[in-house]
Design brief:
Elements lengths: L5 H16 L16 E2 L5 E5 L4 E3 L3 E2 L6 E5 L2 E5 L2 E2 L6 E4 L3 E4 L8 E8 L3 E19 L4 E5 L4 E10 L3 E6 L11 E2 L2 E4 L8 E8 L5 E18 L3 E3 L6 E10 L3 E6 L9 E3 L8 E6 L9 E8 L2 E10 L6 E2 L11 E8 L6 E8 L13 E6 L10 E8 L7 E10 L2 E2 L6 E4 L17 H17 L5
């Protein structure tokens, strides 16, 4: 009798159970296609403008069951018919072509279309995104502060594809060098003046139809410059008068008014607090007294220096203005007329004249003759315009004369008038035949030709 142990019975039972179950079953997989996919599309390079739409082709023959995969670098964009990228600008069109809408600069790089067979198959396109320029000013704040008399260089840089070209222009008017524009990333100003201050523009253009502009504001610091509206102010007692000076300075200047003879009286000498555009300063004398005839000073000062402007307030008459034509109407006399502004009545005039040295290349000018001319009457105090005329007699025919006039009121004699030149006629000469002494030689020749033609043609008329 054969004895079987407990563990032997267990092993035999397990083998019998395994034999009844049979061999395990495996799932059937399709056979690998005999025809492999082939890329019809060739690798290519694409240049596209930022914001446009780009289509990258990927035409495949005999793709079979294999999925086409797009990726940028290592990032997968699509697999088969499914877009895996979060960016919604990507979509598949015409089969496996990749469309990118609203192209961005970050799309620059390589895009690969691949098919995973037994061996990896792929084509790679290169994308170059063109974009408009951007400008960076140096410094970025766009403010350049320069001191008058120094040299200063304005600078900018630009980005863009293709690389942009740069030029400089001034926002208002021409550049200090006289040009409309200046090419390059730098523009140098030599010996800066306050007139050069303003906004300068750095313009970038890279032929894409777009330009970018960077602006630099040039601030020029300089010591004060003072200009007076009138160096001599004519007025009269009881009248009001305004003294005006223009101050240009950077940093802004402090302006002080003073007078030479005495101190200002705040009750009558009023300093304007309404400074126009920071340049126009005014001292008003409300009612002029005799004591107010003095020299007044407008002084401006800042950290870079100071400057003064002086104005004389006077009661004498303004300069006489001669109103006569320069050609007389007689050989031995000349009708002289003039006008003058005076806030006080004119007492008398002084007329000085002489035969000028223009009459001969060797003859010297004759001595001055002076004539004191009384006024024809007094005018109302509100009428400051005075007129007068006289006839100068015993003059030389066909001669040129120099003349000036002065006027006197109760404040004294005024400054002499501008020199006046007049001429007398020749004996027997009519005024209409006189050629203006200011005409050129060509005019005189033309006049002579006309006279000769008249003499020749005159008998033929009769």
């Amino acid at each position: 009798m054969v004895r079987v142990s407990k563990w032997s019975a267990v092993i035999v039972a397990a083998l019998l159970t395994s034999a009844e179950a049979g061999e395990p079953e495996y799932e059937d997989y399709p056979d690998v296609p005999d025809v492999q996919p082939v890329f019809i599309t060739k690798p290519d390079s694409f240049r596209v403008k930022q914001g446009d739409t780009l289509i990258l082709p990927c035409e495949i023959k005999d793709l079979g069951p294999y999925p086409a995969v797009w990726r940028k670098g290592k990032r997968v964009i699509s697999a088969g018919k499914t877009i895996t990228a979060i960016d919604r600008r990507f979509r598949l069109v015409s089969g496996h072509d990749l469309q990118i809408e609203r192209v961005k600069v970050k799309d620059t790089g390589t895009f690969t279309c691949s098919v995973s067979t037994e061996t990896m198959m792929e084509i790679t396109h290169t994308v170059d995104v063109l974009y408009g320029p951007s400008v960076l000013t140096i410094p970025e704040s766009g403010l350049v502060v320069a001191q008058q008399g120094t040299d200063e260089t304005l600078e900018c840089s630009a980005k863009g594809k293709p690389p942009p070209k740069l030029l400089w222009r001034k926002q208002s008017g021409r550049l200090p060098s006289g040009e409309e524009v200046y090419p390059g990333p730098r523009y140098t100003l030599t010996q800066v003046t306050r007139q050069m201050a303003g906004v300068y523009e750095c313009v970038a253009d890279n032929t894409l139809g777009m330009t970018a502009i960077g602006r630099i504001s040039l601030q020029v610091q300089y010591p004060p410059e003072v200009e007076v509206e009138r160096s001599t102010v004519y007025t009269g007692e009881g009248y009001g008068v305004k003294l005006i000076c223009f101050v240009y300075a950077d940093p802004p200047a402090e302006v002080l008014w003073s007078r030479e003879g005495s101190s200002l009286d705040p009750t009558r000498h009023v300093i304007s607090e309404d400074v126009v555009m920071g340049t126009r300063h005014m001292l008003t004398i409300r009612s002029v007294k005799k004591d107010d005839f003095d020299t007044y000073t407008c002084e401006a000062a800042n950290s870079l220096g100071s400057m003064k402007g002086r104005m004389i307030v006077t009661g004498v008459a303004d300069r006489v203005r001669i109103t006569s034509p320069p050609i007389g109407s007689a050989p031995e006399a000349f009708e002289l007329s003039w006008e003058v502004e005076s806030y006080s009545p004119i007492r008398e005039y002084k007329v000085a004249y002489r035969r000028g040295k223009y009459n001969s290349s060797v003859e010297a000018a004759s001595p001055w003759k002076e004539v004191i001319v009384p006024t024809t009457g007094t005018e109302p105090v509100n009428d400051i315009q005075h007129h007068q005329k006289i006839t100068l007699r015993r003059l030389q025919p066909a001669a040129l004369y120099d003349l000036y006039i002065q006027a006197s009121n109760r404040h004294g004699w005024n400054a002499v008038s501008d020199m006046f030149h007049f001429s007398t006629l020749s004996k027997g000469e009519a005024l209409e035949s006189r050629i203006d002494s200011r005409s050129g030689a060509e005019d005189r020749r033309l006049h002579l030709v006309l006279v000769l033609l008249a003499l020749v043609c005159w008998p033929a008329l009769f």
